[in-house]
Design a protein that fits this description.
Elements lengths: L1 E2 L2 E14 H5 L4 H7 L7 E13 L2 E5 L9 H7 L6 H8 L9 E3 L5 H4 L3 E4 L2 E4 L5 E5 H8 L15 H6 L2 E4 L3 E4 L2 E5 L8 E7 L2 E5 L22 H17 L3 E3 L8 E7 L2 E6 L5
Parallel strand pairs: 4-5, 5-8, 8-9, 13-14
Antiparallel strand pairs: 1-2, 2-3, 3-4, 6-7, 10-11, 11-12, 12-13, 14-15, 15-16
């Protein structure tokens, strides 16, 4: 899909599963299981949704998913899809990792930044060797010194090799990355997650990551137990959901396994979605 001179394509970063109770927080299971039926281990289907963007002569990847640095036990726990789905999807789009100029991470949890690096020989190295990786400076600092509560989400092998290679482009607060492409902080899930916004040709797209990981998280109280600051998530949703509805943004969900992108429409007291195919 084109947004003026900016081209956007959806990339399937591969399936995985997480605990349904954790994904829906205080929402009772009889409610959430109607939306996301769990398996025998109480896990629900998820997907690592990513975007390929071409703009201003640059090739850009937004989010890198789970990556491939998983041992058999870890892969089994999270039912991580075999192979390297993100690189496969890029290949189908005609892009080699060496051609990527920018990688934008909304934040550095393993399911959003795991593909930042890969194992070469016996050590992790940048997957995209000439790319600059964009994230909030304070998010990287937190990832390097996480709390006991979120330490399992920040795996140093996903971001430290980039520091050693000098490939970080650290930003502070809301910022324009390229003409028509910007980031805006959306705190709650953690302190410094950022949305990626693309505007052009009379259309708008917002990749909101774990603010709305699934389309089922659109209702305000449907907030993950993973969120460090759930009341801040609620406040951020109060600002963002009406904005997405009223301004006609194409919303990209961080992990919806069935509908990666949609427009949101208010009908009475409910918000309904209309799926959007970014690859048409």
């Amino acid at each position: 899909m084109h947004f003026g001179d900016i081209e956007v394509k959806y990339l399937d970063g591969g399936g995985f599963k997480l605990d349904g109770g954790a994904m829906f927080g205080v929402v009772p299971k009889p409610l959430w299981e109607r939306k996301s039926p769990p398996d025998e281990k109480n896990r629900i289907r998820m997907r690592a949704n990513s975007l390929l963007v071409r703009a201003a002569g640059k090739t850009i990847v937004i989010e890198t998913g789970n990556g491939t640095k998983w041992d058999a036990k870890q892969r089994s726990i999270h039912a991580v899809e075999d192979g390297n789905p993100l690189i496969t999807a890029l290949g189908k789009a005609g892009v080699h990792p060496s051609e990527v100029d920018l990688v934008i991470n909304t934040h550095l949890h393993f399911d959003h930044a795991g593909g930042n690096t890969h194992i070469a020989g016996n050590r992790p190295e940048p997957t995209f060797p000439r790319a600059l990786y964009v994230v909030q400076r304070t998010e990287l600092e937190h990832g390097q010194n996480p709390t006991p509560r979120d330490r399992a989400s920040y795996l140093p092998e996903n971001f430290q090799p980039l520091a050693e290679a000098g490939q970080w482009n650290l930003i502070e607060g809301d910022a324009e990355i390229l003409p028509g492409i910007s980031v805006e902080r959306i705190p709650g899930h953690n302190a410094d997650m950022q949305a990626v916004k693309i505007v052009g040709g009379g259309k708008k797209l917002a990749f909101v990551a774990d603010l709305l990981p699934l389309r089922h998280h659109i209702p305000l109280p449907w907030i993950m137990a993973y969120d460090l600051y759930p009341l801040q998530t609620l406040d951020t949703k109060r600002k963002w959901v009406p904005r997405l509805v009223n301004e006609g943004w194409i919303t990209v969900f961080g992990h919806d396994p069935d509908i990666a992108a949609a427009t949101l429409h208010q009908h009475g007291d409910t918000i309904e979605i209309e799926p959007v195919d970014l690859n048409r």
